[in-house]
Design brief:
Elements (H helix, E strand, L loop, with lengths): L2 E5 L2 E4 L4 E8 L6 E8 L6 E6 L6 E3 L7 E6 L4 E6 L8 E9 L12 E2 L3 E6 L1
C-alpha cells in the first residue's frame, strides 16, 4: 500500500524548532520530487518547500526562506523539513506530497500522493 506519513509536529514556543519527517511506504521516493505544504484554519493550502528527486534542487516560500530547510535521506526513504525560528503564523497542518518527476525540478501542483498531515502549533 502506497503511503506517505508525516510526523514531528507538536506544540512549540515562538523561536523554537521542529523537524518534520515524511516517510514513504509501498514505494521509493527516489523518482519523486517532494513538497511540503501547510494549511492554517480558514486559509488556503500553500506550498512551503519542495525538493527535487535527486535532492539537488530546493525551493522555499518567501515566508520561510532562511528559517526552514528541506532535505532527503534516500536510505531511509524519508524527507525532512527542519523548521527553525518558528513564528505563530507558522501554525498549521503540514502535509507532504510526492510528485513523480525525474528532471530534479519540483513544483507545488499535480502531486501524485499525499500524506494525512501533522499539526504544528507555535505559541507566542
Amino acid at each position: 500500500q502506497v503511503q506517505l506519513v508525516e510526523s514531528g509536529g507538536g506544540l512549540v514556543q515562538a523561536g523554537g524548532s521542529l523537524r518534520l519527517s515524511c516517510a514513504a511506504s509501498g514505494f521509493t521516493l527516489n523518482a519523486y520530487a517532494i513538497g511540503w505544504f501547510r494549511q492554517a484554519p480558514g486559509k488556503e493550502r500553500e506550498g512551503v518547500s519542495c525538493i527535487g528527486s535527486s535532492g539537488g534542487t530546493t525551493n522555499y516560500a518567501d515566508s520561510v526562506k532562511g528559517r526552514f530547510t528541506i532535505s532527503r535521506d534516500f536510505a531511509k526513504n524519508t524527507v525532512y523539513l527542519q523548521m527553525n525560528s518558528l513564528k505563530p503564523e507558522d501554525s498549521a497542518v503540514y502535509y507532504c506530497a510526492a510528485d513523480r518527476r525525474l528532471d530534479n525540478s519540483c513544483v507545488y501542483y499535480a502531486m501524485d500522493y499525499w500524506g494525512k498531515g501533522t499539526l504544528v502549533t507555535v505559541s507566542s
